[in-house]
Amino acid sequence: MASPAPGTTPGTSAVPAKLAATSEGSKKTSSSFWRPVPIFTLSFLLRFVLLLYGLYQDSTSPIKYTDIDYLVFTDAARFTRSPSHAYSPYARETYRYTPLLAWLLLPTTLPGLAWFSFGKVLFALGDLGAGWGIIQILMRKEGMSRERAVKFTSLIWLLNPMVATISTRGSSEGLLGVMVIAMLWAVVEGRTVLAGMLLGWCVHWKIYPIIYAPAILWWMAPSLPNKPTLKSRFVDYPVSVLTNCRILIFALTSLATFAFLTGSMYAIYGFPFLQHTYLHHLTRLDHRHNFSPYNPLLHLVSSPAGRSASSAYFSSTPFLPQLLLSTVLLPLAFAKSDLPGTMFAQTFAFVTFNKVCTSQYFMWYIVLLPFYLPKSSLVKRPGLGVTACVLWVAAQALWLQQGFELEFMGKQTFWPGLGMAGLGFFVVNVWILGVVVGDFAGK
Q1: What's 170's DSSP letter?
Q2: What DSSP letter does each residue of 258-326 carry, written as one string?
Q3: Is residue 29 within 8 Å of 35, Cβ to Cβ?
Q4: Residue 412: exposure state from Cβ atoms within 10 A (0-12, 13-18, ≥19)
Q5: pLDDT, average across residues 165-189
Q6: What mean pLDDT, rounded, does the chain reach?
Q7: Is 358 left (phi over 0), alpha (psi -120 to 50) or beta?
């Protein structure tokens, strides 16, 4: 007669022991998957496959995979070497970026399709670098296990098909993402000089990271005494903040870095650099591919009949609620207790209330989402999380359907279709922002 399985007594079935062994094996398999090597391998392969598919679609379909912005970048890079274009990237219409981006993409001017794809590869590698930085911050500063950190980073960023598609189509947001994550890492690690330099670099590269400065400065500031007097609150405390060594070093290094980079580019390219890289964004009236509820009004005021002195006023007005939320209210309320999560809330509010909102802008806050989501009610209450995700995706899909009919089918869907779809997407985002703020307020 067969002897009992090890760990069982005579007359007892060995099935429970086998089930336990199977369960333990599945746990080990799951645990072994959420490790950096398999996840980063998959993330690399995902982007590699998308890059190859992009080459195929570009060569066979009238609807191109490559983003129009990438053609702008590569043209600008070529113009920096062209005497007929005054060696200036700003000879390329709609180039609204720092010359550093055009310089970085100079290899795309070399002959061959592989060299033309250099920028896409660089942007995709930026995705991976940002993912690595997110994992390090989650483990070292958020106290998260490696498996949990890798899992959240993978599902939100590294294996997110939207993120991978945007980068491999030729959007440079992946590079900006790794810059912001590097800056956040330097801040929480106490590398004050490096953090200041990286903030200056980020703001030179694209204006919006300036919203993080108030949050970081407030996070660095000493705390108020437990029972502050009127004098200590309004005299002693402000003096201690303004004379805080760490705050001064961070502020001066960030300003010096920004001034050096911006001054250098101005010395080379003059006023066109300032106009196209910075000043243009104050009065821009983009109304294409724009999810913003301001889109119909931007369309009207950008037309010849709608252009007037009031159009310039309107183009600047949306900054008021946007900046009040993202640079004042949210940092003051929450940065002290949770800097990374507050940076996500700031960016989400900034994009939601921006007068121009495209899919690329979603990358700005998705890269910071892993610092908020694990502790949020969206995870603790799965029904709420699923509802938020479905509404966010559905509202985008509705807008894209209306936009496709307008731009590709030639149908008049601009109003009420496209306008109401943009308003619906805005309402969904404001509701999600309310959930985010509620989570912070409930801590």
Answers
A1: T
A2: HHHHHHHHHHHH-HHHHIIIIIHHHH----SS--STTHHHHHHHHSTTT-SHHHHHHHHTTHHHHHIII
A3: no
A4: exposed
A5: 95
A6: 87
A7: beta
Q: Which segment of 124-128, 173-177, 355-359, 430-434 scores lowest on mean pLDDT?
A: 355-359
**pLDDT, position 30:** 55
Give the C-alpha separation, 384 to 389, whole Å. Answer: 9
Neighbours of 114 (CB within 10 A): 11
Residue entry with tokens 């070399």? 110
Overall pTM surpassing 0.70 (yes/no): yes
Do 106 and 100 touch, CB atoms closer than 8 A?
Answer: no
Given a cut of 80, whether residue 337 has pLDDT beyond it is yes
DSSP 225: P
Q: What is the pLDDT of residue 247?
A: 94
The residue among 314, 318, 370 whose CA lies nearest residue 340 is: 370
Phi–psi pair at 7, nearest 5 degrees: 90, 0
DSSP string, 80-144: TT-GGGTT-GGGSTT--S-HHHHHHTGGGGSSSHHHHTHHHHHHHHHHHHHHHHHHHHHHHTS--
Nearest to 429 by CA among 291, 281, 288: 291
* 3-class DSSP assignment, residue 27: helix
d(CA 184, CA 136): 11
